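Hey, can you fold this one?
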Amino acid sequence: MRGRILWYLVVIGLIGHKAHAARFVCQDDVKPADLTAAEQKLVDRFWAESLVYLQQYLKVLETPTGGCQQSAQATVQTYLPATGREQTRCILDYGDMALLAKHVKAVLAEPDKARACFDPQKNYRTVTLYTPGEQVRSLSPTSQWLKRPLLTDYFRKMGGPIGAAGLELNENFVAVTSRVDTRTHWAKDVSIRALPTLWSSVGWIPLYAANPDAGSARFRGGYLYAELMGPWGNLRIRTIDGERVGAEIGMTVQLFNTSYPFHYHHPQEMYMTLTRPECIDQNRYMVMHWDNDQFRRVRGDKGWTVEIDGTRDRWKKWFLDQDSNTQWLTYIERNAIHAFYARDGCNQTIANSGLVSVWARTTARDNEQITRLCEPAPGAGTVEDMGPGKKTVCALRDWQQ
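Sure. Predicted structure:
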């Protein structure tokens, strides 16, 4: 066992660093597992690749880019009326991001302790976790041992346009998630190409498949997310040295020719784009504060109604082209309205398109965690044809603090 731990430390580059003797408290639902020696080796591989992912994620946050001296520079608004361009900020200047980085660093400094809170989620009951398809499962003996239900079976049974989109994404999951470029900002590749056990063993969730208010059928079938660290992920740490751990870190995948509608939520969020686009405007995104002057706001008894008018091509100045090199890091403040538009075109095929991101929330134990979707404005059509060029209404209600 000691030899395996030393190997983990060599892999993630922590040998030689003085470790802080932190106290880790796991969530109550993390129970010791009775594993055979062979099963333990499978979990060891999953844990080792998870540590690589977290180590590289932390390193990217701490590496200066743009005008920042101590951390990476993130886009916090894609359009600021006062300047006519995006607004940026050094990401670790945010207190919640600094705390997340501190807690990830503690995990990496003492992986043997943190490991007690790691659960492969083989028999997880809180929510159903899936593997995209048989091709993904075959990437790792760990994934084969976990034997999660397949999303290809889930969407085949669902049928209709949602099922068709889900099958398109999950039958081609390896091709979509392999079209990435991590050379600019990552010292090591963190994609499915380099960490196949992680990407095939983490539990995937078809977040919007069963939500009739979540936009088009193609988007509902064509969006997945997975959580590695966090209250519902593999690494479930409640506190470190008495501090509540709000870090929720994972990955998202969105099928091309889909529009993730305008939405917002109370917890802060961060995305790092991994996808190398086929053409410059293949993947576009928008994040703007709810009180941005581009929106009309009306105060009600329990919150604000924010009216977004993207007609007459107004939306185009709000959205930026997203790629793995320049517009690659986004930080979303509380209640900021954001959307992702993976358009059709560019001679796209399933093998050269999609949107793959490293994703995180920082305050996963605070307040309400639900993602709230905006709705079509009266007379602006149905949720099926919601898109950035329509009129949309977001009902922001007052949050408890």
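The longest helix spans residues 37-62. Let me know if you want another pass with a different chain boundary.
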